[in-house]
Amino acid sequence: MIREARSWVASQELWRVLQRRAFRGELDALESAFRAAFANDSARAVAAGHVVVLHLAGLTDSTGLGRAREILAEVPMVSTGFLLNHFWLGAPAVAEEDWAEAASRASRADSVADAMERHGSDLVAKRAVEKRCAIHGVALREFSRVMRGDDVRLPAFEDAFAGVPLSSYQSEFPIYHTKYEVGKRLLEQGDLARAERYFRSLDPYATLHYVAAQYELGRLYEAMGEPGKAWEHYLIVLNWWRDADLYLQPWRNEVVDALRWLSPDA
Hints:
It contains 14 helices and no strands. The chain is mainly alpha-helical. The chain is globular and about 65 Å long. Helix 6 (85-95) packs antiparallel against helix 7 (99-119) and helix 12 (210-224) runs antiparallel to helix 13.
């Protein structure tokens, strides 16, 4: 189905595989699914976006990242209807602190609305697409500003993503990714209260970030001196990643050590 289905069916099947494997930390098993998706014009861009976000979440190494970025750059966003190409090209630039490239990608996302208008045929659909494209450009721009250290932009960042229509799981990924990254930044700065709010907003529908967010919440509550809450969130990580890939074992080992330290019998 992932290799051969047309339209959004292939992407939906990839999502079903992703839901099961990502939660369990079984990411190596996704390689064949991504390979099948890359061979299908209907699913290539979506799959490439998934590969990028998995890498940025720290759940995989850089294997496949270069190919994913190539696909996002070469697949015409207008013809595929996949609106996030430039966002997932801009997000690694933010991670790499390549602010010029991030700004360039935000500008290109802005320009997609005009291209969609020329390409589309249904007026209502065109207007909806234009709105989403414009919002993604604004969201990437505000995300970049916050990650550069401009905490004054946090309200504008939140407003930008509040406007992203949650029409599908695809449109939720940028929201989950940016909240996770901003939460990590705030945690590193010692801004624990605001970091807590961001991490706790990642519910189980945040398939690619939920378990990782529980790990960060465990660290956060340890820093807050709340061992009971830390224990609760570390235990979620241990339960879901009991048989995780070797790449994730260092995270799991840290959790095991933390639970041992936090044990009432320690």
